[in-house]
Amino acid sequence: MQLATVIENRVKASDLLEDFKKHPVIQGLIKGGESVEYSAHLIPVTGLKVLPLLAKDGILITGDAAGLVLGTGLILEGANFAMASGIAAAETVIKAREKGNYTQATLGHYEELLRKGFVLKELQTFKKAPAFLENKRIYTTYPEMACDMAMKIFENDGTLRKGTFKTLRDSMKGRISMWQLFADALRAKESL
Ligand SMILES: Cc1cc2nc3c(=O)[nH]c(=O)nc-3n(C[C@H](O)[C@H](O)[C@H](O)COP(=O)(O)OP(=O)(O)OC[C@H]3O[C@@H](n4cnc5c(N)ncnc54)[C@H](O)[C@@H]3O)c2cc1C
Question: Which residue's CA is the closest to the ligand 1 atom numbered 20?
């Protein structure tokens, strides 16, 4: 869940966990269990709107602290970005030590390494994904439509089936307009 949504809806992290535990699939798995401890952790998926602060005189920022996390809705990756940025930071420090110079100019090598590797390249590719994923329809309208369409396509109660496009139109009724669907599809193409 996005932090803005949590704040907007005044949701507590503990309530999210309780709701999750009430899900019928989860209930069976934790039956008889007891919560001893819980923790919540924010994942800084911000998208690469602007280059994060990576280096200043005497400082290098890596991993989550620099916002080096990739979230596309399909994948969430931060561990590999933290490791790759850690390696790049270590290589930069070795270079800076050789020069005896830890100014931002020397530490700029860190950004060069991140640009050459997958870290900044992949974040650049998916830079619009976090903003796109704020679209509430992705979590409400589209799953509802998909389930409704699946019911209409796979359920055989003896009534005549309609063509697939007509079925789609029926599932869209009261949920979303064709223009909205096109607009979302276009944004998905640009963002994911
Ligand atoms: C629920 C969840 C699921 C995830 N799933 C995936 C996944 O499937 N794949 C993936 O690649 N990534 C995943 N991630 C993201 C991944 O865990 C992080 O991106 C990654 O751990 C970041 O590494 P890091 O070293 O930058 O930060 P962290 O792992 O957060 O390490 C920072 C450390 O610094 C310590 N610290 C903080 N403040 C101080 C202080 N003042 N003094 C001393 N120590 C301090 C913290 O205790 C912590 O141990 C997930 C994250 C979460 C929360």
Answer: 79
The reply to whether ligand 1 has any atom less than 6 angstroms from the CB of 1 is no
Q: How far apart are CA 33 and CA 55, in angstroms?
A: 46
Question: What residue type is 104 in one-letter code?
Answer: Q
Q: What is the pLDDT of residues 149-191, one digit of tens each?
A: 999 999 988 888 899 999 999 999 999 999 999 999 999 999 9
Question: What local confidence, expressed as pLDDT, does residue 137 receive?
Answer: 94
pTM above 0.70, yes or no: yes
Q: How do residues 90-122 score in pLDDT, each as one tens digit?
A: 999 999 999 999 999 999 999 999 999 999 999
Atom of ligand 1 nearest to the CA of 62: 26
Nearest CA to ligand 1 atom 9: 77
Q: Is 110 exposed, middle or buried (0-12, 13-18, 19+ CB in 10 A)?
A: buried
The residue type at 122 = E
Residues 109 and 54: their CA atoms lie apart, in Å, by 10
Q: How far is the CA of 137 from the centre of ligand 1 (A)?
A: 29
Q: Residue 111: which residues within 8 A CB-CB, separation 6 or more?
A: 51, 54, 55, 120
Residue 71, beta-bridge partner list? 76
Amino acid sitting at position 22: K
d(CA 85, CA 53): 13
